[in-house]
Specification:
Length: 736
């Protein structure tokens, strides 16, 4: 749509574009004649969310604007939360129900009458505790929670109730003042006292809820750390008790000192042991040397021992022989014992001889002195052996102590490490608890919301929006109606204008005719336009026919349409009237299917030969114009002076097509109605015709709005003001 077309719609529909919004504005004016006055109050609360001081602030912390904005969002959400507004509403109900009469500082006359219109005195008596605001609030809460349907629930939820939560929420405004710590809360209603008290109740309610919400965060954290600290302390005590019991059971006072003492004692014992071993070796060597001096004195002693043993053995054998003789043993046993006794006697003699030789040494050293020295060393040797045995037993005891004491060290280290870990965990939890308590205290200090500006009592109502509503309603009506017409023009799928013919019908445009009824287009010289456009049609026909067959003496022109009621008879009559005034005779054949056929012909023109023919199935086989004329008049005219055969055929959607004549036609004109849509059925019928047509086929668009003929006509001849002409010149040709 062009910009000119847009303004053309405004001009053509200007009457309705003014009348409809005016009626809408008048209706709004009437409906708002008793519009109640609105009073508005506000309060400013200091939050300290951005620049407030806290215990944990060391002076170097940077402001986290995202966190600050999030905190303000949380605070604003708390203000407008359902439960906060519910508390405000219940307190207002309690305050107003306790009134015995209107009070300009609490509730005006209109509000008092309204609540007593909703509730009678009996119902009010059931809801209040006379003279006690707090108990009345508690009673209203208990009634509200008693069931899903009760009078308090009705007052809180019904749209007609002045205490409806949604109504209060819609009148509350909450906003942060620029980038400050201030929160501005506003409320508007039709009673100034209610406005002030609503803000007071709202500030109290959301302050309390916000403190509880923020406090509950740290309370849960502190509780968590306290539980963790208790568990960590119990674990630490358990580990310490295990370490204590381990020391008691294993008699460990100081493991490091004890292990050091054991190691040192064993080292001293090892030293003494090796010293004693040295003494033993010395004694052994000394005895060996002395025995060499004693000329094998040991053998002497040994011989003495053997001598004594043999004497004892001989005594035993003599005892057995005597006993055997007394008890009269057999001779063989006695003889065996006697033989053993004889052998012992011989050995005894030999040992006695050896003992004599040992006792008489040939060396000059006295044998007695050597023997005494030998005895001393033997005693030392035996003493040393005894001490070494004791040392070895003690060393074995120390090995047992080592085996017992060594694993105790690793177990003790593990227990001490466990105690250390539990202690660190306990200290860590204790540190977290201290931080949480510090944070809790900081939040308790920072959550003290302070009122900078208390709610004020509004003495004057807000400016009425009645005038704005009237203006908005007028503009809305204008825009809606204009949008309706513009949308209708954009969505219009009719052919409408000449520039849409090629796109929708896909045939060349011959020309277009304006609306036939000039009364619909006031101020436009329709007859002048029609004559000019008809002349364009004649000029185009002459040019096209000359190109088609310049030697032809007679041209056949067929005028057809796919549907009826398109003005085909009028178009055909206009063309033949014009052609008959230019050349020789013109034959015009028109069907008898319409009462308008032949209505627009120039009956006084002798060169116009008009024939009405009957439409039947036989026309499909007609071969010439004479077939139509014979059917119409039963006579054959002279065709020598005829220049044009113009044949109007009935609509293709209902009647047969004269196929032979269509093939012979030099030119075919399809008449289309601009006020109708071009459908697929029209395309189908047109393509059927095009299968037969050998000559040129063009479209003539009829019933076009005069303003839409500018693309083929130029400036539309009508009366225009100077302003309108200049405005059109400014916008002409610009498209959107």
């Amino acid at each position: 749509m062009t910009l000119i077309g847009f303004f053309r719609i405004i001009i053509n529909k200007l009457k309705w574009l003014v009348l409809f919004p005016s009626m809408l504005a008048i209706m709004v004016m009437y409906l708002t004649r008793n519009m109640p006055k609105e009073y508005q109050s506000s309060a400013t609360v200091y939050t300290g969310l951005a620049s407030g001081y806290s215990i944990t602030d060391d002076g170097n912390e940077k402001v986290d604007y995202f966190a600050v904005n999030n905190a303000f969002d949380n605070l604003i959400t708390t203000v407008k939360s359902r439960e906060t507004l519910e508390e405000v509403s219940i307190k207002l109900i309690a305050q107003h129900l306790l009134l015995r009469e209107p009070n300009k500082d609490i509730l005006g006359e209109k509000g008092f009458e309204e609540i007593h219109r909703i509730l009678d005195m009996n119902e009010i008596a059931k809801l209040i505790v006379p003279g006690n605001f707090e108990k009345t609030v508690a009673k209203l809460y208990s009634i509200k929670d008693s069931s899903n349907r009760n009078i308090v629930q009705y007052l809180l939820t019904d749209a007609a109730s002045p205490y409806a939560i949604n109504k209060i929420s819609g009148n509350v405004t909450v906003a942060r003042k620029s980038n400050s710590d201030m929160l501005e809360i506003g409320y508007k209603t039709n009673d100034p006292a209610v406005c002030v008290h609503t803000l007071k109740f709202l500030i109290d309610a959301f302050s309390y809820r916000y403190k509880n919400i923020k406090g509950s965060e740290t309370v849960n954290v502190v509780k968590y750390f306290e539980e963790q600290m208790k568990a960590a302390f119990e674990s630490l005590q358990g580990s310490e008790n295990k370490l204590r019991d381990f020391g008691v059971n294993n008699k460990i006072i100081n493991y490091n000192e004890q292990s050091k003492f054991v190691a040192e004692s064993k080292e001293d014992l090892s030293t003494d042991f090796y010293k004693e071993k040295m003494k033993l070796e010395a004694a052994v060597k000394a005895i060996k040397r002395i025995e060499e001096k004693m000329n094998n004195y040991s053998d002497f002693v040994s011989a003495n021992d053997d001598l004594m043993n043999l004497r004892q053995e001989l005594s035993t054998l003599n005892y057995k022989i005597t006993n055997a003789q007394i008890f009269k043993y057999d001779a063989e046993s006695i003889g065996s014992l006697q033989d053993n006794a004889d052998k012992v006697k011989l050995e005894l003699k030999e040992k006695a001889r050896d003992y004599y030789e040992f006792n008489n040494s040939i060396e000059w050293v006295p044998q007695e002195a050597i023997l005494n020295e030998w005895l001393v060393k033997v005693v030392e040797l035996e003493e040393s052996k005894g001490r070494l045995q004791v040392y070895e037993d003690r060393i074995k005891q120390y090995d047992g102590i080592y085996k017992e004491f060594a694993p105790l060290g690793s177990t003790l280290n593990r227990l001490e490490r466990e105690v250390g870990v539990q202690e660190k965990q306990y200290l860590s939890v204790l540190h977290g608890l201290n931080l949480a308590r510090l944070r809790q205290q900081s939040l308790e200090m920072s959550n003290q919301l302070k009122i900078v500006d208390n709610p004020f009592f509004p003495l004057n109502p807000n400016p009425s929006k009645r005038g704005l509503l009237i203006v908005v309603s007028f503009l809305a009506g204008f825009i809606i109606l204009l949008g309706y017409h513009v949308g209708g023009a954009i969505l219009d799928n009719t052919i409408k204008s000449p520039d849409r013919v090629a796109k929708m019908i896909d045939l060349p445009l011959l020309s277009a005719f304006p609306e036939h009824d000039a009364s619909n287009v006031k101020g436009v010289k329709v007859d002048e336009m029609r004559n000019s456009l008809l002349q364009q049609v004649i000029n185009t026909l002459f040019i096209d026919l000359k190109k088609i067959d310049p030697q032809a003496k007679r041209y056949t022109i067929i005028i057809f349409s796919t549907q009826g009621q398109v003005g085909k008879s009028y178009v055909a009559a206009s063309i033949v009237n014009k052609l008959s005034r230019i050349r020789k005779k013109v034959i015009y054949l028109h069907p008898d299917v319409s009462n308008k056929s032949g209505k627009y012909l120039d009956s006084n023109n002798p060169k116009l030969l008009s024939y009405k023919y009957k439409v039947n199935d036989g026309i499909i086989d007609y071969n010439s114009v004479l077939d139509f004329i014979t059917t119409a008049e039963n006579s054959s005219p002279d065709l020598n002076d005829v220049s044009y055969n113009v044949i109007e055929i009935p609509r293709l959607s209902k009647y047969p097509i004269p196929a032979n004549l269509v093939e012979q036609a030099h030119y075919s004109i399809l008449v289309a109605d601009a006020s109708r849509s071009w459908t697929s059925a029209d395309n189908f019928l047109m393509n059927t015709y095009l299968k037969l047509a050998q000559g040129k086929v063009s479209v003539l668009l009829n019933h076009v709005a005069p303003d839409l003929l500018e693309p083929i006509y130029g400036e539309i001849p009508k009366r225009r003001s100077l302003l309108r002409r200049r405005f059109k010149a400014l916008l002409g040709g610009d498209k959107y």
